[in-house]
Amino acid sequence: MLDIQKIRADFPILSQKVNGKPLVYFDNAATSQKPQQVINAIGSYYGTINANIHRGVHTLSQLATDAYEASRKTIQTHINAKHAFEVLFTAGTTHGINLVANGFAKFVKEGDEVMISAMEHHSNIVPWQMLCERTGGKLVVIPMNEKGELIIEDFERLLSERTKIVAVNHISNSLGTINPVKHIIDKAHAVGAAVLIDGAQAAPHLRPDVQELDCDFYAISGHKACGPTGTGILYGKEEWLNKLPPYQGGGEMIKEVTFAKTTYADLPHKFEAGTPHIAGGIVLGTAIDYLTAIGFDNIAAYEQELLDYGVQKLSEIDGMQFVGTAAKKASVISFNIKGIHPYDIGAIVDKMGIAVRTGHHCTQPVMEFFKIPGTVRASFAFYNTKEEIDALAEAVKKAQRMLS
Ligand code: PMP
Questions:
Q1: Burial track 307-328 (b if 16+ CB lie within 10 A, e otherwise)
Q2: Among 116, 123, 363, which residue has the most ligand 1 atoms within 8 Å of its CB, making it the best to mutate?
Q3: Does the ipTM exceed 0.95?
Q4: Closest-lying ligand 1 atom to the alpha carbon of residue 221
Q5: pLDDT digit string (tens) for 96-145?
Q6: Which residue, 265, 293, 321, sits at the end of a domain?
Q7: CA 21–ligand 1 middle distance (angstroms)
Q8: In CA terms, which of 40, 183, 256, 347 is 20 to 30 Å from 8?
Q9: Start and end of every Aminotransferase class V domain (predicted)?
Q10: What is the pTM of this model?
Q11: Catalytic residue check, 362
Q12: Which of 239, 272, 293 is the last residue in one of the domains?
């Protein structure tokens, strides 16, 4: 059992008032709030060991390097990667996916296929379209059903030896669907395709075991999992990271540079050109430690409770239309109220201190599938409460009264 009041005390932002009302923060799928431990760790880094890493013999540089590499190890343990060098620091999921899609062009010829799904975030669509434009590859899309679940029989039918990579999300940001990624990975591997999992939405809710999943790439954003913005992780299997060309060229990623030829550094440095977000990388480890101490099993169980409660409370509202009703869902509720534009609900509940996201959530094809302009999305974290869900339900009813 989680002590939610104790946990909430770690998050200073949650005790604020917004528009004169206690803040109810239900935009966790966009970015999570940060505990004091994370906020302190940022100040502590800059206040005590700030220096550039991997290059100085001086003490501060060594301390900063040690802290950065210790964080890489923390994340390696967290995702159960075989080697620490398979964990690349990135600026986030978008960066991680672009890094792979850019280099993967080497393995896609005209007529080859790149498979994504109908419920991808734009950042797991556009980089693959760019790859296809460069290579003559074809983008193939796994369809979904009315509940917002991938149609697995269609996926299996679409797979062939032409499929070079399958890139799907672990959890959908606009629908909350938890996808059967282990099955997808096994089937894709059976035809020789590589698999990238977009773990942006999974990272705050579960602990991915990349060896058990056997995925080739797994991309995460730190800011959705209590870490700083501009941080993230790309896991890549050693074999693939060795085969992929570097993404960016510059300092840190080289072994030797002459005007005639440059040789690249060993992993992970080959993919980490330039001075990275050192404080961010270190503090991402602090965030993972924080979540681990709370316990991912505890987080999942409590968020399921919030999800069930939220669905029950919101379904009492007349005209409620849930968007995304998959059997396996994370704590994300997307909805519309009949006859009302989602933006209007978002704007009115904001006046009552409640932060929800409205719009297409960077998944325009999902909105097109459901033939809607967007949704109101309430996404819950382990620091939210049932009382906050009550406040949302009341605010939505009030908005409905005002607008109809
Ligand atoms: N994929 C999914 C499923 C997401 O939810 C997001 C963020 N909304 C991203 C990718 C992109 O993450 P970031 O903006 O942190 O790079």
A1: bebbbebbeebeebebbbbbee
A2: 123
A3: yes
A4: 15
A5: 999 999 999 999 999 999 999 999 999 999 999 999 999 999 999 999 99
A6: 293
A7: 29
A8: 347
A9: 24-392
A10: 0.98
A11: yes
A12: 293
